[in-house]
UniProtKB/TrEMBL annotation:
<dbReference type="InterPro" id="IPR036397">
    <property type="entry name" value="RNaseH_sf"/>
</dbReference>
<protein>
    <recommendedName>
        <fullName>RNase H type-1 domain-containing protein</fullName>
    </recommendedName>
</protein>
<dbReference type="GO" id="GO:0004523">
    <property type="term" value="F:RNA-DNA hybrid ribonuclease activity"/>
</dbReference>
<dbReference type="InterPro" id="IPR012337">
    <property type="entry name" value="RNaseH-like_sf"/>
</dbReference>
<dbReference type="GO" id="GO:0003676">
    <property type="term" value="F:nucleic acid binding"/>
</dbReference>
<feature type="domain" description="RNase H type-1">
    <location>
        <begin position="89"/>
        <end position="215"/>
    </location>
</feature>
<dbReference type="InterPro" id="IPR002156">
    <property type="entry name" value="RNaseH_domain"/>
</dbReference>
Length: 241
């Protein structure tokens, strides 16, 4: 059986590499970047087992599992649209959010175009930029609710975060909780997108505070590695061993 699997893989590798049939299978693995099929099967099996162990856990120790998904009745799922922000939209309360690659996040609040206050916080080093952007949006919504602000504009420069909130197919609980908060009948929060580093004063100020927060030592929230991070790490370990 093992020999048949190697032969099947070899046929595919020859087609990909477009080389002579006399080239060894080992050389084909190197040329194409595909590992031997027995290692690939081991990878997928171990990854699947680990994912099964943690997929139903919302938290692992003190760390949130961002990939934790929950079942939602289709008729309860709604799409939350977003718009493109420009300088004329500085009306009322406007909250800019930012997530950086150095695991610091910031939020700056403007009222009628004038800077009012800001908040910064830090996530653990394994956290992805995407999670950081989602946390920043969540904190902006929480800020408005704490201050009993009924109407506000929430601005992000992360298209992927806004698209995830807009999506009807999203089932990650962390994002669904944000959607539920945005849909609160007592609030009117509008989502906006702004281009990063394009001279928008709100976006530039949040960028300034994320850089300023590099010295912050205390970690405010912990997130475990994402499904993709774990896959990459496990593949690397298996191939090295």
């Amino acid at each position: 059986m093992r020999g048949k699997l190697f032969q099947i893989q070899r046929t595919g590798l020859l087609a990909i590499a477009k080389t002579y049939k006399t080239v060894s299978t080992f050389a084909l693995n190197l040329l194409t970047g595909y590992p031997p099929i027995d290692i690939k099967i081991k990878e997928e099996n171990e990854i699947w087992q680990q994912q099964q162990e943690i997929k139903n856990l919302e938290k692992i120790g003190i760390s949130f599992n961002f990939d934790y998904a929950t079942e939602v009745n289709p008729w309860k799922i709604t799409s939350i649209p977003w718009r493109t922000f420009n300088e004329t939209n500085y009306v009322g309360i406007t909250v800019f959010t930012e997530g950086s690659k150095i695991n610091n996040r910031a939020m700056v609040v403007f009222e009628n175009g004038n800077e009012k206050e800001h908040e910064i916080w830090r996530l653990n080093n394994d956290t992805t930029v995407f999670i950081g952007e989602m946390v920043a949006i969540r904190e902006a919504v929480s800020y408005c609710k704490r201050r009993q602000i009924a109407k506000a504009n929430i601005i992000s420069d992360s298209t992927s975060a806004l698209v995830s909130i807009e999506s009807l197919e999203e089932n990650r609980k962390f994002i669904l909780d944000i959607k539920n908060s945005l849909q609160d009948t007592n609030s009117n929060f509008l989502l906006w997108w702004t281009k990063a580093h394009a001279g928008n004063k709100g976006n530039e100020r949040t960028d300034f505070f994320t850089k300023k927060a590099t010295g912050k030592q205390e970690i405010d929230s912990y997130f475990c590695k994402t499904k993709q991070q774990r896959k990459t790490e496990m593949r690397k370990n298996i191939r090295q061993n």
